[in-house]
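Most newcomers find our protein records easier to grasp once they have seen one. Nothing more is needed to start thinking about how sequence determines fold. Here is such a record, shown just as it appears in the course material:
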Amino acid sequence: MRAPLPARLRPEALADFVGQQHILGEGSALRLAIEADRVGSLIFYGPPGSGKTTLAHIIASSTGAVFEQLSAVSATVAEVRAVIAQAQERLGAHGRRTILFLDEIHRFNKAQQDALLPSVEQGVITLIGATTENPYFEVNSALLSRCQVYTLEPLTSEELATIVRRGAAELGARAPDDVVTLIATKAGGDARAALSVLELAWQTAEGRVLTADLVEDAARKRPLVYDRAGDRHYDFASAFIKSMRGSDPDAAVYYLAAMLEAGEDARFVARRMVILASEDIGLADPNALVVAVAAAQAVEHVGLPEAQLNLAEAAIYLALAPKSNAVLRALAAARSDVREHGNERPPAFLRDAHYPGAKELSHGEGYVYPHDDPAGFEMDYLPEKLRGRRYWPREPDAK
């Protein structure tokens, strides 16, 4: 009873597990494997409080195999090898399987992960890993290829409300529906956070009815799930860029705010906007690059938090600007020709003619100065082998 509420309320059977129906629905492969005690090596990937460890404990309570648990935060290679040695002896002597649950598997370095590989490959152990980091970034490809990856999603408000009501019943707390909804909203998809807020608010209530004020005081700030080096960093950056490209200023401002609130480097955000200004807007609105560069300079000269306004102004401007990727396509086509044909020399009339002897090489011969003769504007300045090529549309396709 002294354990935190999330630990006391951890389900021990699939029937009590809330959420993740996309992988645990009736008839799903994972559910059938757990119920039939034939779980193979797998990795649970998802945000905190989505049920990764709980699912591992459900497997532990329902399997006939020996269940070993280690945390990658503290486990050493020697401890892993000891578990493997015991598993090998157990399998050989009694034919009994061993499941190794490795929490925070992304915290294992390459050498530690390599120590697991042979035993997983040979079936000496069944590995269950849990991670909040994208396993495709953090887990060795050889180990990853021998595991099934299951992605867990943040719990919905309705699912969290179910969990909060169970928690209230466990505590004997009186929680009106509006308070349950508030806790579910504040938890940000995290069951552990929801139960922790509930428990703290009830302790503060001292036996009275739970109120919104008590929940607000216990929650303080909704948890932000973000990482500045992993997949959420790239996911939010991608969404931010695509929102501006798709001319959605509301989404652009939201993703900007989400990144900045989570501690994203403002210079990274500004650099992405400078790139987008030329890649997706270009000469459809040349001022877009000026605005983006000004925002980047503001970040350096003003700094956060005030520079958030400059970034937001630029993001809205870029989202609303007319769009054209003609600059991108022009450069890509030109680079393709360079790669295919090499660096074709400029025609002789364009070559440097300022030094003695250049005339003997016919450098500059035939060049027409456009300001004196408009015919200079009609000439083809490309190398001879590329004459007639068009990289830039004469009428930009602004959208």
